[in-house]
Amino acid sequence: MCPGELILNLMVPITLFDELTESIIKSTGTLDLASGEIRSIQYDDHDIDLQGLPADDAAYEFTSGTLSHRGKEIEFRVDVDVLTGKYSVTPSELLELKGRAAKLFTAPP
Question: Which of 36, 29, 85, 31 is nearest to 57 (CA)?
């Protein structure tokens, strides 16, 4: 890093919802707004080592995420790669999310 170089933190905390036929598995993570990768996923009441990846369950339907700021939320679609266990946002979804997030974070209280 060069002196005077500005570093932007493009990591934002999000909430994830893995929706199964009869239940929802909630977790939290960090979305990288530069790449669309979701990291540091912590499941609520779900042990991934014992119960496996929610997206690998026969009852799995889809995953969504929410980005919150000052009591307002933005919902977005999340892709899960069952082979790697990685969560991410597609480039087109990420582009739309960035515009909506900019409005959310710059809106007056």
Answer: 85
Note whether residue 7 is domain-resident: no
**Structural domain containing residue 21:** 12-104
* Lowest mean pLDDT, pick from 29-33, 41-45, 104-108: 104-108
Q: Rounded to whole angstroms, what are the CA distances from 32 to 9, 19, 21, 27, 93? A: 9, 22, 29, 16, 13
Rg (CA), the chain: 15
C-alpha to C-alpha distances, 15 to 2, 57, 84, nearest whole angstrom: 34, 20, 20
Q: Read off the DSSP letter of residue 5.
A: -
The model's pTM:
0.86
71 domain residue, yes or no: yes
Q: What does the alpha-carbon distance between residue 68 and residue 58 come to, in Å, rounded to a whole number? A: 30
DSSP state of 4: T
